[in-house]
UniProtKB/TrEMBL annotation:
This is Spy/CpxP family protein refolding chaperone. It is found in: Periplasm. Pfam families: Metal_resist. Residues 1-28 form the signal peptide. Gene3D superfamilies: 1.20.120.1490. Belongs to the CpxP/Spy family. Keywords: Periplasm, Signal. PANTHER family: PERIPLASMIC CHAPERONE SPY.
Amino acid sequence: MKAFQIQNLLRVGTVAAALALGGVAAHAGGHGGHHKGGHAAMADGGMFGARMGHMLEIVNATDAQRSQIQAIFKAARQDLSGQREAGKKLHQQLATLYTATNIDAAAIESVRAQMSAQREAAAKRMSQASIEAARVLTPEQRARIGEVMKKRMARHADRRAG
């Protein structure tokens, strides 16, 4: 293999590793989604996303509802906090594998699968938290959030189309 091809392979591997770690970190560490109320963005697109505080304002959530929902997501973030360090280690393993003299496809696939499993576990935990939080709201409040989400999805679709 020519030196140029090896350099390109290393670049692609590094980018892939960075993207994979970014996903793990977003799920595990709650980054990228802190807004009013201090809640992490939902990676699974659940009812409670990055703008949860805003959503709770729209539905006129009571102080008791807000407190319960904040506690639910705080517990979920705490449950996932240990994944951040594990994600860093997987990223380091992947970077080492991509920069090795010989590329070990089976080892890279193994680390990729571990990263994927970690993201899936985080998404599942956040989905559980979202379900718990939805149960705190009334059916009318959930319906109002659903209306807002549909409007947002339509606006995003229009932007992509145009």
